[in-house]
Amino acid sequence: MATDQIPALPQAFAPNTDSVFSDLSGFFSMDTNVPGLSKVILNKLNMKDYGEYRAAVEGKPKGISFRNYKEMFQKMEETFKFCTGCNALPEHLGEGQTLKRCIKCLNVYYCTKECQKNDWPLHKKVCKTLRLVAIDRLVEWLMFLGNLPFPTDKWTKPTSEVRCWDDWLSMQTDLSTRLDSILTSSNMETLWKNVSRPRPEDTDLRQSLWRIQSEFLSRVLTVGMAIQQFGLDPYAKPLTIHIIGASHNETMGARLTDYDELNRMFPGHQGVEVVMVGPEVVDGPIMRPPLKAFGPRQRVFMSAHKDLYHQFWEDLVEREEAARPDLVVGFHPGFHANQGLIEGWLPTLLLLRDYNIPTLFTVFNEYELKYSLQILLELEVNIQDSGANAFSSQKPEQVQSSPNTQPVYCSSHFIRFQGLLPRDQSEEPPAEAY
């Protein structure tokens, strides 16, 4: 790629909707003077508002480009520059002052030695993990150049015997060869030639490649897990799966083959349709109408629709322009976060409940799990199971505006529910008579 054609930074540069610190939340943070990515990204990219940023994320900007890769990576790094101790931005510093990186994790900055010293009791608890975060956010760039995700092997075990990552990894016979080919690729060389930090050891890079691969596959394997847990049989009939609350993170750069691991999980299946539905779905190859009837056998058909799910249901499902789902999955719906989110999600949650649709949601941690369960119970949803996800992403996610918060992992926990809570469980037991 010619240096004058280097595009705007990929989604890894922007706060991910599928990460703890979403882009929308990031821009809300400007109102509360929390620095983080939201405030700096506009300054560094000369964008005036959230709408202009959204256009860039969706690949619609004009004139936003970089002279070379070094400049691109420099600006990416600058978006992480604020003092972890006092939240000072570079423009707040006095003359001659600069933000200096923690030399251990290369991921957080301080404006003075005093700030670093005062912050160390908190930072030392996460410093080692944040070092991995710093490596991953650079290596993730290879996702946009085609090096990742790498190809996977056919399954040599029955799906019922693949219960965790170790089971899946045991079937990847030439994993080391595939990782080494990425390590020695020209794109990997370009990456470390242009970033302002030394190249990590190959062992660290191999582990980073695997963590990023795991995040990509985590969604697919979680869907496969839900199919099994609900007792759905992809060999008996075609399955329609709706991924709701989908955002630019799932759909920007999405390919028609992204869920093909389901072909290896269920070889010889009758056909699987995956429909991404969400208000932040991005145009791309999968932006095409959903199927009205059965899809192709032994293949996964992907499509996307930009809308709220309950509106999609009214406009397409009820009019039989789209097939009714056998399963609904939501990755990090986040309706526990504030009243506005639960109000936005309420019509969808009630729809899922009242139509008795098998549903699985994933969350980031036990805190989110607890409050999401509480909301669902208040809605009298019949919760069948919840807990740790065996196919959680292995890539740590940093809370952007608060780096010393313990990193979390995408889809680390799940909630599985279907229909309305049986009346005898939803009512309080009668008081004892005396």
From TrEMBL:
Domain MYND-type: start-end pairs: 83-127
Q: Which Gene3D superfamilies match?
A: 6.10.140.2220
Q: Which UniProt keywords apply?
A: Metal-binding, Zinc, Zinc-finger
Superkingdom of this entry's organism?
Eukaryota
Return the SUPFAM superfamilies for the record.
HIT/MYND zinc finger-like (SSF144232)
Q: Which InterPro entries does the annotation name?
A: Mito_gene_expr_regulator, Mss51-like_C, Znf_MYND
Calcium as a keyword of this entry, yes or no, is no
GO molecular function, one example? Answer: zinc ion binding
Q: What name appears for this protein in its UniProt entry?
A: MYND-type domain-containing protein
